[in-house]
Amino acid sequence: MILINGEFKAHIEVSDRGFQYGDGLFETIAVAKGQPIFFNQHLKRLSEGCSRLHIPFPGSELLTTEAKKLCAHTEAAVLKIILTRGTGGRGYRQPDEIKTTRVLSLHPFPDYPDNYKEQGIVARFCDTPLGLNPRLAGIKHLNRLEQIMARSEWNNPAIQEGIMLDINGHVIEGTMTNLFYLKNKQLYTSSIEASGVAGIMRGLIISVAAKLGLTTIEHNFTQDELLSANEVFVCNSIIGIWPVKQIGKVHFTVGEETQLLQDKLIKLRNEDIKVDL
Amino acid sequence: MILINGEFKAHIEVSDRGFQYGDGLFETIAVAKGQPIFFNQHLKRLSEGCSRLHIPFPGSELLTTEAKKLCAHTEAAVLKIILTRGTGGRGYRQPDEIKTTRVLSLHPFPDYPDNYKEQGIVARFCDTPLGLNPRLAGIKHLNRLEQIMARSEWNNPAIQEGIMLDINGHVIEGTMTNLFYLKNKQLYTSSIEASGVAGIMRGLIISVAAKLGLTTIEHNFTQDELLSANEVFVCNSIIGIWPVKQIGKVHFTVGEETQLLQDKLIKLRNEDIKVDL
Fold first, then answer.
1. Is the ipTM of this complex over 0.90?
2. Tens of pLDDT along A18-58?
3. In chain A, which ranges are E strands?
4. Counting CB atoms within 10 angstroms of each CB, which of A163, B36, B195, B255 has the fewest?
5. CATH of the domain at A243
């Protein structure tokens, strides 16, 4: 099911700038019991992304109405929202009047085994680097060739995620996740000043951890630093938190702090489902 | 007029990876007398881009047939070819079997005044930087947010092009052009090892210049180096060569070498039109 500018359709104009240049943004949102989860946070990021890219934001009210329409009576699904700069303009130059394209689509919830959450996943380091550009860093925009090239590096189904480094060798994130590690009871995650996505789950974890008295240090770190951690986990809006049990040949245990954060996030999620949009 | 996978259409599936992730490539080609110009060079770059991104190339023969069909009886136009990784796959992961989407579209030839070619254009330095990523550098891919953000920086019609620097302050290219300069009878252009597009016109100029005994040094250079040049010009497949007469407050004369290269390229272009595809 796809809603394009409020109408049920499955096709977009070729001249849409999303197709021509990746000129837009997206959100991937978990849906449970007819309700898009952490929807206000996703709307906020969309609005902020629009502001950074100078794309007119269609408004929270309209997007909420359309999301509710699409998600009604859905037990579990993934809601994807794409906003683009619409059609027109000459070349890279944007049209004088921008009519933002909005695409809301519903997809089956991915069928991940429960043991990913419980026993953890296996990750690898990717060879494809993330470029550096502070101007676009943090934004969940439609320019995703780096992630696609990284994800194409392996086909082994025993490996669930690839970890990407920037061109300076700093560990930034997974192909579809943000990454955290714990070392000596201190929580760390990557700085996303020059590359990487400001994940909704990443933000929630930093705030939940703070309430538990666990501050998060956002910094640049190397592969070696990561491999010397006590606990490692990845996160996104669909999977929540997956502990990482192995990166290459290095093994990790699923630690207490990771489990505590998982529990807190599940509680937060359940509370969010109860709030009527 | 738009040909999508061989059929006249104007819409693309929302699930196309070009729309979802900018997962593809494009070419912008001048058309004269029913003939796409320097078409073999464009096909070669498309094929090489496909190879670097692991997108199956649909083949020169098919693309030539479709291009001829679209361009027949067209006096002057712009042919755009977009190739994407098709539809499907889960998230960034590409589908097991890729069916490349091909979109060929014909557009009016832009109405640039003749004096841009003769007296030169005015350029400015852009504030939006180009990111660094050797893995994607050179490829004319669909991830073009940097160029769009740069092109949105000015609206003054007296300025025809914006010059982009990488995050280290090296001058790389225009928003829609490659850039050259001449200093003490030596031709220079930017290195495109870490960012920038390997323009067809850029390649032709390097080879034409070499035949004139003028070698091109590809290197990293600063704004100051550029501003101290004797001649500056920008180029792409649609405009050919535009001398730059002014960048900010610094003025340049339209030099002999630039004019010589313009003449040689026009000859090359006219010869190319005569070759039946």
1. yes
2. 999 999 999 999 999 999 999 999 999 999 999 999 999 99
3. 2-4, 7-8, 11-13, 24-32, 35-36, 76-84, 101-108, 121-125, 161-165, 171-174, 178-183, 186-190, 216-219, 231-236, 240-247, 250-251
4. B255
5. 3.20.10.10
